[in-house]
Amino acid sequence: MIEQQLKTPFTELVGVKHPIVQTGMGWVSGPRLVSGTANAGGLGILASATMTFAELEAAIIETKRRTDNPFGVNMRADAADAGDRCDLLIKHGVKVASFALAPKPDLIAKLKDHGIVVMPSIGAAKHAVKVASWGADAVMVQGGEGGGHTGPVPTTLLLPTVLDAVDLPVIAAGGFFDGRGLAAALSYGAAGVGMGTRFLLTQDSAVPQAVKDLYLTHGLTDTVVTAKVDGMPHRMLRTDLVESLEGTSAVKRLGPTMRRTLEFKRDSGMGWFALAKDGRAMRKAQGRSLGQMALAANTPVMLKAGLVEGDTSAGVLASGQVVGVIDDLPTCEELIDRMVLRAVDELRRGSSYVV
After folding, report:
1. Are residues 75 and 99 in contact, defined by beta-carbon separation less than 8 angstroms?
2. Are residues 199 and 241 in the same domain?
3. By CB distance 3.0 to 4.6 Å, which of 77, 204, 228, 346 could disulfide with 103?
4. Residues 152 and 121 in one domain
5. What is the average pLDDT score of the chain?
6. What's the rounded Cα separation, in Å, for the pair 25 and 118?
7. What is the pLDDT of residue 77?
């Protein structure tokens, strides 16, 4: 691992060497990838939305066994047991709590009181202003080219609006994969970059090799944003399964949806009452319709089929557009080292233009 080359408000806040974040990807961001990122000097984030409470605690303990460096946990703020999961982070001294949806002010205050950095992900400047007023320490802003569902605005346009709106460390995500992008984000005023697909495609990722190889065959136009999986827009690899879902009516998707709901119930260990409670919380927080709620279990089950079991005929593969410019599978250390060194070179080159 190279020595620290870049010091930003984010590296100072979190205590990492390099301003690079491995984002929390369901079924992908487990102890192996998170510790690989942490040991390379970046911030790895466990994805807990696809874990039971017991699985999350086991994952935290395993990650701590693998690394002494800071790492984070990504959680759903609207989950029925969000408070208990925050208590778990406090118990184990996790450094960063990241959220796909903004946690309420009392939860933020509780985490901060125990020295945990709170970093929600946002998709608009107004959301950044809101969470800043609630006490968030940093924000991650993801543009439309990313694999999430924060909206269609590209990072290059979304990032400056957020930087102008808040005085917090801002992590830029969506479309980043190399040192040039890191240098560009820092030049905009961001305090670092977040990457999902780029870290999925590393040797430290537990995704099956055949699935990684499939990702590497896709180009810049080989992803699609679809709402046919769970009623909410997600960016996926354009596979035969996704193409068929795009052309299938809601009625024809009903039977498979019910089967996946039963599978999710079994895997999560949740009873029907707990599922209903979780669904109501999700509907309230995200404004989902009843139809979207019926589809909600599709995403974790179908992602598991593709990313864990390697069954691309039954599973979907989340991806950012950046998949089209990735052509190798480095270790986390190799990836982070070369990104930082290239970013430093680019920043120095750019400064030579100043007269």
Report:
1. yes
2. no
3. 77
4. yes
5. 89
6. 18
7. 92
Residues 181 and 254 in one domain: no
How many distinct structural domains can be found in the chain? 2
DSSP string, 193-224: EEESHHHHTSTT--S-HHHHHHHHT--TT-EE
pLDDT at 95: 98
Rounded CA separation 196/174 (Å): 8
- What is the per-residue pLDDT across 37-68, written as a single tens digit (0 to 9) for each? 999 999 999 999 999 999 999 999 999 999 99
Please report, rounded to a whole number, the percentage of residues in the chain having pLDDT higher than 70.
85
**Among the listed residues 101, 54, 110, the one whose alpha carbon sits nearest the alpha carbon of residue 75:** 101
Query: Residue 289: is it exposed, middle or buried by C-beta count within 10 angstroms (0-12/13-18/19+)?
Result: exposed
Q: Rounded to an integer, what distance in angstroms lies between the CA atom of residue 60 and that of residue 86?
A: 12
pLDDT at residue 228, as a whole number = 78
* Dihedral (CA of 274, 105, 234, 180) sign: negative
Closest CA to 127 of 166, 97, 167, 175: 166
Integer Cα distance of 184 and 350 in angstroms:
10
Largest CA distance in the chain: 67
Alpha helices (runs of H) in the chain, residue ranges in sequence order: 9-14, 31-39, 53-66, 82-92, 105-113, 125-134, 155-165, 179-188, 197-200, 209-216, 240-246, 250-268, 272-286, 290-295, 298-307, 332-351
Give residue 279's pLDDT: 52
How far is 313 from 108, CA to CA, in rounded Å?
Answer: 41
Query: What are the pLDDT digits (tens) for 289-336?
Result: 544 445 555 678 888 989 999 998 878 899 999 999 999 999 999 999
Alpha carbons 76 and 74: distance in angstroms, whole number? 7
Tokens (6 digits) for 242? 């996704």
- Same-domain pairing of 337 and 296: no
Token pair 């190799």: residue: 334
Q: Specify whether the backbone of 171 is left (phi greater than 0), alpha (psi in -120 to 50) or beta.
A: beta
